[in-house]
Amino acid sequence: xxxxxxxSGAIPHYHDHRERLRERFHEIGGENLRDYExxxxxxxxxxxxxxxxxxxxxxLQRFGSFxxxxxxxxxxxxxxxxxxxxxxxxIKVVYAAAQRxxxxxxxxxxxxxxxxxxxxxxRGAMGFEAVEQxxxxxxxxxxxxxxxxVQQSGTVDHTPVYPREVMKRALELSAxxxxxxxxxxxxxxxxxxADIQMTKSVIDIALPLGITVHDHIIVGxxxxxxxxxxxxx
Length: 233
Prior knowledge:
Elements: H1 15-28, H2 35-44, H3 53-63, H4 66-71, H5 74-77, H6 85-108, H7 115-126, E1 133-139, E2 145-153, H8 163-172, E3 177-183, H9 193-206, E4 212-220, E5 223-226
Parallel strand pairs: 3-4
Antiparallel strand pairs: 1-2, 1-3, 4-5
């Protein structure tokens, strides 16, 4: 592979580039770097003696966006030339850290008082996944989070949801309210007829049990949709 130090001891061509990129990060912050530049910085830690710019660009070309690179499974990451298991593992650790960071505001206050944080967390946790997942946020009477659980995983366009199982788990946790969440891997968060019908089925079973369904949020890489906000429930 090109880019390693040669036997003459000459400084590799990418050495100065790494230092300049690190300096830019400290001067202007990560939010002002291009996606491939931020990805380069991430890869510096796992690939110490290789020019990571072409690798970063190849990852973005393969997966489409920075978020989709972080969310990609390790097996698919290692299909990109130059990305070994160490680099793929490092990317997944960063992804896990990002999810943990987004979840902190959700854990610390009533969810209905921090709705934008709920949306950010749901998109970060599920918006870039390759298959559909159905997630439930279980809340207590103060609307603070009791548990956050992925109930089902499905295919690229379908996840089986069983309303009675949802209620069974809510009763086990003594939850008094729920927020339903699932993702559309297509990227388009527009709710389908099946999404609306399933949500109404959950609401119909929850109501006699004194459990409120606050919303059903659908997330994707292109945004999110709220069934309550769209007046569909």
